[in-house]
Amino acid sequence: MDLTLPIISIIVPVYNVENYVSKCIESIINQTYRNLEIIIINDGSSDKSGEICSSYAIKDNRITLIHQENQGLSMARNNALDIASGEYIGFVDSDDWIALDMYYTLYNNAVEYDADISMCNFYYVNQNGEKSSYSNESNSIKVLEGVYKIAHNIRLSNNCVWNRLYKRYLFNDIRFPKGKSFEDIFVMHRLVDNANKVVLSSQCKYYYLRRENSITLNPFNLNQMDNLKAYIERHTYISITYPNMEKTGRKHIFLSLLWLIRKAYRDNKIEIYKKELCDFIDIVKYYDYSDCGLSIEQKDLLKLLFEDINTYIIKMNNIFNNKIPMNISEE
Question: Which of these, 216, 220, 219, 198, lies nearest to 208 by C-alpha position?
Fold first, then answer.
């Protein structure tokens, strides 16, 4: 181990992932960057996840393992941040895994380009092991500063914290929101804004497993409304600090609303959650959707939704019965 290199604290929240957590931990302890502090938070798992983590903690003294009552993903990360001693911070979700040179690559890029956040690309992996990525470049580097780094962040469809390396100080006044889903969207724009530079590598070093019980693939529930709350909060922040980016931030509010309504419809949850959905519609309809880059189809759907949700449902019936494609999401 090269002790002259700074410590990277890697935070791994664990909850009921007994079939996945070993692969995750193996990919971390075998990193080519050896000077690691690995903080595993077993967040009240009821399966064998805690036992598996304990077995690794015995074998590798770089692992700090904390068993706690279930507090949720945000608090598991926050509790780890409170004790992290590294100069850099990284996050890995316990059902995912990383390339063996991910943190070596991220650290080298951070140092070479003097960046507070170093980012790589990632693969989506389905349960059959098939992987895909939005990256078409094998190895390109971009360095973003000022308004360009925040513009890149706002335009991303993925605002997750896990494919990045952060200078520790960025979290001095930032924690994940307790009890919220889509917690990363609540904080990423603030982390990026605090950073001096962001360096982006097109290389895919993180493997994100898309499980059937993930928050985005689960049947519609109230927790998924946090997606819209996060984009509304982010828009408020952006409107004040980067007014030129306000339209893009506003666009994602509308895209989030359309995603929520479509998901509620597909899962037959519209009637169950109609009051909550209508409350959000009443909030969002006061934003102007005419000038923020939405497609004609998206504007038409919003116009119909803001006029009457029942008429909108009839329109949805026609769309799905006739198998008309609905392009209302943005990658």
Answer: 216
